[in-house]
Amino acid sequence: MESLQQWYASLETAQILAIAWKVIGALLIFIIGRWIAKAVASLARRTLTKRQMDAMLVAFLGTILYAILLLCVILASISYIGVSVTPLIAVLGGAALAIGLALQSSLSNFASGVMLVGYRPFTKGHFVEAGGVSGTVERVGLFNTQLITPDNRSVIVPNGQITSSPITNYSAFDTRRCDLLIGVDYGDDLKVARDTIWKVITGHEKVLKEPEPAILVMDLADSSVNFAVRPWVNAADYWVVRSELLEQIKTELEAAGCSIPFPQRTVHHIKESGGGSE
């Protein structure tokens, strides 16, 4: 502090004013430059959006562009003061290497984020199962992805965890096959059961005509004959249609005289009496 005070005391008024103007100029460069960086990033986002580019990709590229521009603004501000940026860039390079070694997992998540944006296995609004979590994609960031679960919980999943495991995208196509397994009793008339199930699924307004639904005898199980019922529906209607079909199929099968069995066990009790048993 004493050395700094001595240096300051040795300065002339003109030198102090020059330093002050440089500091003020550097602050102005930073403030105006940051505003310009935000404006350019915002303009880039709007331009990409008008070209109907994926919203997730637009947000990702906008963040990267803003970070690069802001770094350039900071270097320009430091350079205006009179500090050489060449040694600073070398220092930043060495620091980046050290930070990279210390934060390998974070860099892995960043690389995974780039892969997710580049390959786009899903986009905002898709319902996916990724990284062991099922939910609707809300945002894909530099290091993690935000999913909203069906019970309205926000889950933040590291990007590396997503790319290192299988990704199931339930919204990749407009239609889905609704797989139902319906069991009837061995004593029931299979033709009656099949016709009843067919009437229910073809009569539902949200079941698609194409592809045509299928009803197959899938298994002769221990206590039932199992039908694989496979109607096609719009992906957005999947859960509603599945619930309604199960309820209607059970009601109509019972009305047609068929029964849906459940596992039962018959126990024979042997009673010993004297020397014998019965």
List the helices and strands and how they pair.
Elements: H1 2-10, H2 13-50, H3 55-81, H4 85-102, H5 104-119, E1 127-130, E2 133-140, E3 144-148, E4 154-158, H6 159-163, E5 168-169, E6 175-177, E7 180-184, H7 190-203, E8 214-220, E9 225-230, E10 232-234, H8 238-255, E11 272-273, E12 276-277
Antiparallel strand pairs: 1-2, 1-5, 2-3, 3-4, 6-10, 7-9, 8-9, 11-12
Helix pairs in contact: 2-3, 4-5, 7-8
Q: What Rg, in angstroms, do the CA atoms define?
A: 34 Å
Classification by helices and strands: alpha+beta
Distance between the termini: 107 Å
Bin the strand percentage: 15-25%
- Profile the largest sheet: 5 strands, antiparallel
Number of helices: 8
- In CATH terms, what is the architecture of the largest domain? Orthogonal Bundle
Outline:
The protein has about 280 residues and is of the alpha+beta class. The protein has helices at about 1-10, 15-50, 55-80, 85-100, 105-120, 160-165, 190-205, 240-255, and strands at about 125-130, 135-140, 145-150, 155-160, 170, 175, 180-185, 215-220, 225-230, 230-235, 270-275, 275. The radius of gyration is 34 Å and the shape is elongated.
